[in-house]
């Protein structure tokens, strides 16, 4: 979660449930990048502080354009004086990359490891670890989108006041629909404020836990799909032969 990301309580979300004011709650992570480790040498000749920050952001943005990753932790260290390790901690959500400028200003904080005050980064190496992160539920204010939503405003209004992840995913929204969401993003929900009855059986319901496919129940469903028609056929044959015998 980035430092300026607004944390919204479910109680607050639930108030925005009508045509003039409609918020949606949807799991922010569509696809998961399990782990990515990169190492980048920043160019010594790159101009000043802004130049370096820009170079880092460009690398991140290029990678993020190819994968969907909810959380990134970046550690920045330099090889000159190991006692003072300036650090850059970034935790961003994919949607905050839009617009790019917000990402830069919101999340780019360099901290001096010892004094913990913002400092200029030295010539540095950059290691990037993409970790799995938590499943974060994001809140979208779709009021201005209600009239333009291709699926109509009614579906959005009925999806308010609850976790709308399953409804959203069931439609199979396109990538461009997902990109549009960035425009309406207003914050993240405080997961502990969601009442139990509103928690769906999705990854969003278990923050910090990976979206493991439920192999056991999938297997059972497949077996049942095979067995039930056989069972019906068997009963039909049994009935038929018993009726024939009676004749
Ligand atoms: C911020 C949230 C949302 C955005 C930006 C969004 C955007 C879109 C877009 C662009 C489409 C056109 C088809 C596509 O490109 O996939 C679409 C279709 C649709 N959406 Fe959404 N949507 C949102 C939330 C939802 C939710 C929560 C639901 C269900 C409760 C929903 C239900 C539908 C339906 C039923 C269609 C029509 C599908 C069809 O006719 O094939 N949408 N949406």
From TrEMBL:
One of its GO terms (molecular function) is metal ion binding. InterPro entries: Cyt_B5-like_heme/steroid-bd, Cyt_B5-like_heme/steroid_sf, Cyt_B5_heme-BS, Cytochrome_b5. It comes from the Eukaryota. GO terms for cellular component: endoplasmic reticulum membrane. It comes from Dillenia turbinata. Residues 113-190 form the Cytochrome b5 heme-binding domain. Signal peptide: none annotated. PROSITE patterns: CYTOCHROME_B5_1, CYTOCHROME_B5_2. This is Cytochrome b5-like heme/steroid binding domain. Keywords: Heme, Iron, Membrane, Metal-binding, Transmembrane, Transmembrane helix. The keyword Heme applies. The keyword Iron applies. Belongs to the cytochrome b5 family. It holds the Pfam family Cyt-b5. The chain crosses the membrane at residues 219-239. Coiled coil: none annotated. SMART domains: Cyt-b5.
């Amino acid at each position: 979660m980035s430092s300026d990301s607004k944390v919204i309580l479910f109680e607050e979300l639930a108030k925005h449930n009508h045509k003039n004011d409609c918020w949606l709650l949807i799991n922010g992570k569509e696809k998961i990048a399990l782990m990515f480790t990169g190492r980048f040498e920043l160019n010594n000749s790159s101009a000043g502080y802004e130049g370096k920050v820009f170079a880092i952001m460009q690398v991140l943005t290029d990678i993020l354009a190819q994968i969907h990753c909810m959380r990134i932790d970046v550690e920045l260290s330099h090889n000159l004086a190991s006692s003072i390790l300036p650090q850059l901690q970034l935790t961003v959500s994919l949607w905050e990359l839009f617009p790019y400028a917000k990402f830069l200003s919101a999340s780019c904080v360099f901290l001096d490891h010892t004094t913990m005050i913002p400092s200029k980064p030295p010539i540095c190496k950059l290691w990037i670890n993409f970790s799995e992160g938590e499943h974060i539920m994001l809140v979208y204010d779709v009021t201005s989108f209600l009239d333009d939503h291709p699926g109509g405003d009614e579906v959005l209004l009925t999806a308010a006041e609850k976790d709308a992840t399953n409804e959203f995913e069931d439609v199979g929204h396109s990538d461009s629909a997902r990109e549009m969401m960035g425009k309406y993003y207003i914050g993240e929900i405080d997961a502990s404020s969601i009442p139990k009855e509103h928690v769906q059986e999705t990854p969003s319901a278990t923050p910090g836990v990976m979206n493991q496919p439920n192999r056991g129940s999938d297997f059972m469903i497949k077996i049942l799909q095979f067995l039930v028609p056989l069972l019906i056929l068997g009963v039909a044959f049994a009935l038929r032969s018993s009726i024939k015998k009676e004749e």
